[in-house]
Structure formats: structure tokens, C-alpha cells
Amino acid sequence: MQPRQDLSLVLAAAGLSTRFTPNLAHFPHIKKQFWPLNGVPLVQKVYEDFKHLGLFTQIFIVVSNRFEQIYLRQLLCDESVSVLVGGASRQESVQIALEGVQTPLVVVSDIARYQTEPLVLERLLERMQGGLDCVAPALSATDTMVYYNPTAIPPYQLLERKRALRVQTPQICRTSVLKQAYKAGTFTDESSAILSLGAHAAYIEGSPNLDKLTFASDLPAHSVRTTSHTGLGLDVHGFEGGKVMKLGGVVIHSSDCGDCGFRAHSDGDVLLHALIDALLGAIGGGDIGLYYSDQDPSFKNKDSAEMLQEIYQLVQGVGHCVEGVDITLFADMPKISPYRALIKKNLAELLNMQLTNINLKATTFEGLGFVGRKEGVGVQVLVQTRALYVVHE
Fold this sequence. Notes:
The protein has eleven helices and 19 strands. It has helices at about 40-50, 65-75, 90-100, 120-130, 175-180, 190-195, 270-285, 290, 305-315, 340-350, 370; strands at about 5-15, 35, 40, 60-65, 80-85, 105-110, 135-140, 145-150, 155-160, 165, 170-175, 200-205, 220-240, 245, 250, 260, 320-330, 360-365, 375-390.
């Protein structure tokens, strides 16, 4: 297919995956968008398959939150794609992307339809040349179809199966018409929105390969493997008088820290910051500054434990489980011994881990450097995670 200047792509990947619950003990919170097919997350696979076609002037991917937005940007390493945070529904998410579309035609598809069919897309483009406002792929129904209306008597109405269609994506639309149609009501796809407007839509023969991945039972036969990943985090903070000091989410008594806290934009918990960086390193997610900029006033004095929980949720969502944490604290002040057990217990709770998989050790600088002069603290954290790796058979 030849590159086109009149065509953009919107990939909907903002679902919460509440119905996708694979029975995997160590990966209970993995999101469908990040299901690792041969080690490649579905969202990345679908994006690369479409991009490889070389058709699109603009590409938009809509995800569910800012953490996935930042992570996906790190994953793709492609500034030509716009990764956006979506809305509360698929329609709202697509509408957010449409605000940036500058081409007269737009293709909208779901990440959950992870098998790209170039021939279907080619036929969609050919059919669109007939002056239509939308063309979508669809398959004939193979089961008996019944329409249910609980307020009707009787509540069930038999539909003629040979006239019923299962509508799929990708769908191609005239951008201006789709924008107008979506303002008129609530819809589950683009073709229904355009039809409700009285505009011209048509359906072509789709493909079973374009069926949607909704439930774990929709997955083809596969074998589950895992891969080991390591992340290293390092952070340093200087002391500042008159502040509360936290290490690992535990408040250090003022008499043990010279009535000093840490000079920082957030609460300055240097241990948790290093741990966050280590977790991000293990998943290839960049660094803490991408997610919590010290130039953003909304993060002023933010609780680092909340930051850790938010990043840990991302770690789980992209298909990693944390196996081990090894922490080294560089400090002549405070002494860590009185707080070691409290910090380990707090980390175990925050990361849902066993105490035996968390190690915390400390060393002094014997009066050398800024640590030895008791001007600040440094922390290094090594994290090991186990990542899901799925081979479809």
C-alpha cells in the first residue's frame, strides 16, 4: 500500500481490562493491552503492525492514565506517535484523539483486535472511494440472535440471523462527519454513530482474525513462560532543617536526624525514590522524574509512599511481579538500626511481598564526602522482577 497524506490512525487502548482475568497467580493484575505476545505487549505489536504499512500521516494511541501514557512513550521510543490519556468510555477516548486529527479521513481500531489484516484495510480504503462517510468490516452472525427489551411484552424478539452482522474494527471514516456524529449521542463504535446521523455507511466482509480479545478465554492456545529483569535505582538528598524525615515511609525521630528532613520537591523520601527508579528500570519505564516532575506544583510535598503505590500498580499492569529488593543506605546520620524492621515491614506491605525477599543494609562514609559530613543521604536499590512471556501456539 502507498503512503497517503489524507489518512490518520487512532488506536483505542484505554480500557480498564476488568473482564480480562487470566488465571495467573503471580500476574493477577496484568492489563489486556500489555499482554506480552512473544514478549511484545499487544499495544506495541498492533502499533508496529499498522505503522509498518506506511499509510498514516498521524498516529494516535489513547491509554487509560498518565502512567501508561509515559510508560508507552518510553516503550515505543517514537516521537511521531501521539500517546494520549483517554476518557471514561471508548467513545470519549476516541473523541479526545479526534481533536488532534488533521486529515480528512481517519481509521479507528481497537488494540483488543490485535491481529492486523492488511487486505481488509485495503478493501476498506477501496470501498471508501465511493463517496461514503464510513466503511467497517463485519461478519455474519452464526448463532441464533435475540433482541432483549425488558420493558416489552414479550421481552424477547427473534432476529433474522442471516441479516445480523457482527461489526469489527478497523473502521475508516470522514473525520468531520465522525466528529459531528459523536456529539449527537452515545455509541459503541464509529459506524453506529455515523448511521445515527443519517450519513452514509457501508460494511464489507471482515475476518475472524479481527475478533476482539475481551475475556481470557478468548486467547488462542498459548504457553506461559517468564523472564527475569533487573532494575537499579540511585537517589541522593541533602538535609534541610525543620522538616520531618521519612525513610522507606517511616518517620525518623527528630533526635535521630538532627531535627532535619530532606531538601526536596516531594516529601523527600530518598529510599522510596531510589526504589521507584529501580522498579521503573526493571520494566523499562524511564525514571521517576518523568512521572513526578519537580517542576509540577501538584507534586509539592507529595507522599512518596503514594508515588510508590502508583508505580507499583503500573509494574503489575504491564505484567511484572517483584521478586526481590536489595537496599543499601549510605548515611552517617541517621543510624538505621532502630528503624530497619519498621522500614522492611512497611515496604513488604506496600509491595505485597514477603519480608524474606526484602533486604536493607546501611554503611557510613567514615566522615568522608557529603555523607560523612552529615549533609545528606544516598540510597541504592536493586530490584529483581519476573515478567510474563507468552507464546501463542
